[in-house]
Amino acid sequence: MMTMKTDYETQQQYLKIREDHEREQKRRTDELREHIKEYDDLCFKRSELYAQAMKAGFDGNIEHKTELLEQVAGLDFRETEILREQKLPADWLSLHYSCSKCRDRGYLPDGSRCVCLDKMIREASVANYTMQGPESVFSDYDLSLFSDTPAKNGISHRDRAKKRCDLFEKFCTSYEQYCAGGSIKCENYLFFGKPGTGKTFLSSCIANRLSEAEVPFIYISAPKLVELIFEDIRGSREGTSMKQLKEIPLLILDDLGTESSSEFVTKQITELISERLQHDCWNIISSNLNMNDIRKTYPERLASRLTESFIPVIFEGPDLRTIIHRKKLEGTKQHPPDQTSGK
Ligand SMILES: [Zn+2]
Q: Is 264 left (phi over 0), alpha (psi -120 to 50) or beta?
C-alpha cells in the first residue's frame, strides 16, 4: 500500500522541487555567461552597479542611487535583447516553478492550500481506500427496499432514502470541486440509525464515487481505527498513520461505537475529530449509537463537537439485510436453483 505523505515529508518534497529549479536556473545562467562574453561582462557590471547603489542608499545619496539603478535597468533591457538574439525564451534566466500559483510552497499567500498540494496528497493517498470497504455504488441504491407508506410525518422511508442519496451525490460533487481548488465550506455529517438501515452502504457509495474521482480521502471503520491507534503508538504501522487521519481533507469514519473502547481510545478519537474540525476538514461519521449513548461512551467534548458541527442524518426503518434476504428467497422460489445455478 502506498503511504500518504506526512506534513514534514511534503515540506521536504517542496524544498527539493525549489532547490532543483534554483540549480537549473544557475546552470542556464552559467552556460550563457560561458558562451557569450558580452553577457558575462554584463552580469559582472550589474552586480558592481547593485553594490554601488546599495552603498549610495546607505549614504543617503538617493539621487545617485536612482541613477545607478537606471543603469541596472538598462543592462536588464540589454539582457532581454541578448536572449532574443540567441533565440532563447524570454524567461530563460528566470527561476521556473513547477506550480506558478504557490511558487512551489504548497500554500497560497492567504494561507490556503494550493491545488498542487492536494494533488500530491491525492496521488499518495488514493490507495488508502483499499484499507477496507464494501463495493457499493450510487446506481445500486435500491429504493424498492424502502417502504413507500407515508410515516407519521407524511414522508415515506423511500422518499427519505431518495433524498439522502441525492444529497450525498451532491456532497461528492462539492468535495470534488473543493479538491479542484474551489472555495467551498467544509461539510460534516453524522449518520444515526440502527444496524442494517443502510449507513455503511451509503458511506461505501460515497467512498467508491470519490475513489473513482481520485480525490484524497480515507474510509475507515471504528474497529480498524482502534487497531491503527495502537499500531501507530508502537510505530509498527507502515501505511496510514494517525497524523494522516488528522490531515486528510475528508475522513469517512464508519460504525463509531462498535470499537472495543477504553478511556485512552475514546480520548484519541475525540482528539482526532476535534483536530479535524479545527482545521476545517470534511467528515462523515456513522454510528449505531444515539446522542445519549455517545455522551455515555465518549468524553463530553466529542458529544458537543458532534452536536455543534455535524448535520445529523437519521436512518430509519427495518433491517434492510432482512428485506434483502427475504427478496432473495422470493427470487429463488420463482427461479429454482437447478434452473439458475447451472449445477
Ligand atoms: Zn501550487
A: alpha
Q: What is the pLDDT, as a whole number, of residue 317? A: 76
CATH class of residue range 115-329: alpha beta
Express each pLDDT in 8-18 by its tens digit: 667 778 888 99
Question: How is residue 113 annotated by DSSP?
Answer: B
Question: How many angstroms separate the CA atoms of 277 and 250, rounded?
Answer: 11
Whether pTM exceeds 0.85: no
Q: Give residue 118 CA to ligand 1 midpoint distance, Å.
A: 9
Q: How far is the centre of ligand 1, averaged over its atoms, from the C-alpha of 106 (Å)?
A: 5
Shortest CA distance to 318 belongs to which of 120, 167, 151?
Answer: 151
| C-alpha dist (Å) from residue 181 to 125, 170, 249 | 18, 17, 12
Q: Per the structure block, which three cell numbers stand in for 290?
A: 444515539
Task: Parse the chain into domains and list their residue ranges.
Answer: 7-85, 115-329
Q: How far apart are the C-alpha atoms of 122 and 125, rounded to whole Å? A: 5
pLDDT of residue 333: 56
Expressed in angstroms and rounded, the spacing between residue 304 Cα and the centre of ligand 1 is: 36
**Ligand 1 center to residue 104 CA distance, Å?**
5
Model pLDDT, residue 340 = 36
Pairing outcome for strands 188-193 and 311-315: parallel
Å from CA of 113 to ligand 1 middle:
8
> Cα separation of 98 and 100, whole Å?
6
* C-alpha 14 to ligand 1 mean position (Å): 9
CA of 117 to the centre of ligand 1 (A): 6
Q: CA distances (Å), 146 to each of 193, 195, 254, 312, in order?
A: 14, 15, 22, 20
Cα 121 to middle of ligand 1, angstroms: 12
Give 272 Cα–ligand 1 centroid separation in angstroms. 27
Residue numbers of the chain with a pLDDT score lower than 50: 1-5, 126-133, 335-343
Q: Which residue type, as a one-letter code, is found at position 103? A: R
If you measure from the C-alpha of residue 276 to the centroid of ligand 1, how many angstroms do you get, rounded to a whole number?
22
